[in-house]
Write a structure and sequence with these properties.
The structure is a single chain. This protein is of the alpha/beta class. It is 37% helix and 16% strand. The protein has an eight-stranded mixed beta sheet, with helices on both faces. The longest helix has 13 residues. The N and C termini lie far apart (36 Å).
Length: 236
């Protein structure tokens, strides 16, 4: 996983910056989940692009990250983050106290998500939160991505006229495994998390999602980018 993102680290930022409204719709969603979040660890922080925008434009400080790609981690470090190079499965979430574990856009790149969620539960203090944010498998983007992955390309008659003019790079699509919102809920509840909350953005068709910057809304029934926030109970 890290090797693929090493090779295309710069392409990741370029795609987001060329799709500014998609980027800021997603940033707005992430920011909405981080009110009173305490100390935050970003698991799979990538290049630190989101964290930099959150710090500069929202006053949300995320200084620590975990990232398996050395190329991505290098960019994030240049942006001022402290990054441990490791996969989510390998990483130690509990070596320091964090109130919030943020997985922004990363659940689909974690093979053993169930194990990682259980580890997150053990590492968080009572009342701490985990946030899983990603493209749901059942969403319009999820269906498009899986079709492109099955075909191995965006350039296919079955996809003609159905995807944005500047689609997510196929190299990133091919290594992802999207999960449904229901699957994520089941993993969280099985680990012991409770009080689940949902927020969503990118509610238009993927063809048009970069036309406007969206503010998030509650729920998970129409968004192509969905945040599931869950809390470790105060009493066991």
């Amino acid at each position: 996983m890290g090797k693929g993102f090493d090779e295309y680290a710069s392409a990741y930022d370029v795609w987001f910056l060329e799709n500014r409204n998609v980027l800021y719709s997603e940033v707005n969603l992430v920011a909405s989940t981080l009110k009173d979040a305490g100390r935050i660890l970003s698991v799979g922080c990538g290049s630190g692009l989101f964290e930099t925008i959150l710090r500069k434009e929202f006053g949300i400080e995320i200084t620590d990250g975990i990232e398996p790609s050395t190329g991505m981690a290098e960019i994030a470090r240049k942006r001022g983050m402290h990054v441990t190079i490791a996969t989510a499965e390998e990483a130690d979430f509990g070596h320091e106290r964090y109130d919030t574990l943020l997985f922004n856009g990363t659940p689909s790149y974690i093979g053993d998500l169930a194990g990682v969620v259980r580890k997150a539960y053990d590492a968080l203090p009572a009342g701490g939160r985990i946030i899983l944010i990603d493209v749901p498998k059942e969403s319009s983007y999820g269906i498009l991505y899986n079709l492109a992955k099955a075909l191995g390309t965006w350039d296919h008659p079955l996809l003609e006229g159905c995807y944005p003019p500047n689609p997510y790079p196929i190299e990133f699509v091919e290594v992802a495994a999207w999960r449904t919102t229901a699957e994520k809920v089941a993993l969280l509840e099985a680990a012991g998390f409770r009080d689940l909350k949902f927020a969503q953005t990118l509610t238009g068709h993927p063809l048009y999602s970069d036309r406007v910057e969206e503010q998030p809304c509650e729920g998970y029934d129409k968004g192509d980018y969905v945040a599931v926030t869950a809390y470790k109970p105060l009493q066991q």
